[in-house]
Amino acid sequence: MILTITLNPSIDRRYNIDKIEKGKIFRTDNYQYTIGGKGLNVTKVIKTLDEPVIATGFLGGSSGDYIDKGLNNIDISHRFIKIGEETRSCLAVISSDGSQMEILERGPSISEDEISEFLKLYEELLEKVDIICASGSIPYGVPLEIYRDMINLAKKKDKKFILDASGETLRFGIDAGPYLVKPNKKELEDLTGIKIDSNEQLIRAVKDLSRKDIEIVVVSLGEEGAMAVHNDDVYKVIIPNIKALNPIGSGDSMIAGFAVAINRNYDLETMLKIGAACGTANAMESETGKVNKNNVDRIMENILIEKLT
Ligand code: ATP
């Protein structure tokens, strides 16, 4: 069983319009609402791959109810802590020429009692799961060390923790030694302080990070695939060319693929292939955090893993 953590979920509201223009009013009947937040994107992709998953985090207000219902509709098990404030919405306005504008609400503040309640629930859920995936930003009130503390609790119970975060929460989390961490290039630069302009610098930065007690480090490189380090060996993940429609959420989909592969005890190369295939399959869809299973299988066959050392 895989547990996904979404501390700051959202309703993602996407509006498609002809052309974004300053100071104008736009009308559209081409809009979609989806349940989102990085952890919920991971959850949806794990579900598509038919692996058992349970989602947790914080939900509040009528937006929280909307997400709760949405998860029930797609048959995803979940146990969220109900909070006093309203769960956020994130808005994307996409014009037909492909340009995009996003408004991300700050989201609710979480009280100390709600955090304690969540940590109690987390410890209870830890007993039932093997892998934990924590993704994304944290809402106000939640301490920056939360992922670090959750990793430490998971490790005490011999559970594998996958971390996909950024900034200080990622830095703290890394100190606790998660099983797998997946920064993208920008996050890796921020973490290591190494400016990455060449392959050599990239390898140095990934290796630098993997020196800590982290089993697997993967740096995702968008359309350029990924690079991974395990046991001091460096692997390059070469992906096929595709026509990308919307690559947002590809990192989340990659995490889902990794979690599924680890849950099935697949070897490292297969894990890297499934993860990268999920990321690429997501980029082919217009909806964020969505993959077509047949595309994942097809893409996997066209991914090459090259051992560099
Ligand atoms: P996000 O934060 O939006 O989830 P990310 O920055 O964490 O994304 P990326 O590096 O963009 O993650 O993507 C993860 C993986 O998805 C890549 O390693 C690659 O396999 C696949 N991918 C992403 N973008 C593309 C693309 N344009 N074409 C093909 N594959 C892609």
From TrEMBL:
Pathway: Carbohydrate metabolism; D-tagatose 6-phosphate degradation; D-glyceraldehyde 3-phosphate and glycerone phosphate from D-tagatose 6-phosphate: step 1/2. Its EC number is 2.7.1.144. The keyword Cell inner membrane does not apply. It catalyses: D-tagatofuranose 6-phosphate + ATP = D-tagatofuranose 1,6-bisphosphate + ADP + H(+); beta-D-fructose 1-phosphate + ATP = beta-D-fructose 1,6-bisphosphate + ADP + H(+). Keywords: ATP-binding, Kinase, Lactose metabolism, Nucleotide-binding, Transferase. Catalyzes the ATP-dependent phosphorylation of fructose-l-phosphate to fructose-l,6-bisphosphate. This is Tagatose-6-phosphate kinase. It comes from Tissierella carlieri. The gene is pfkB.
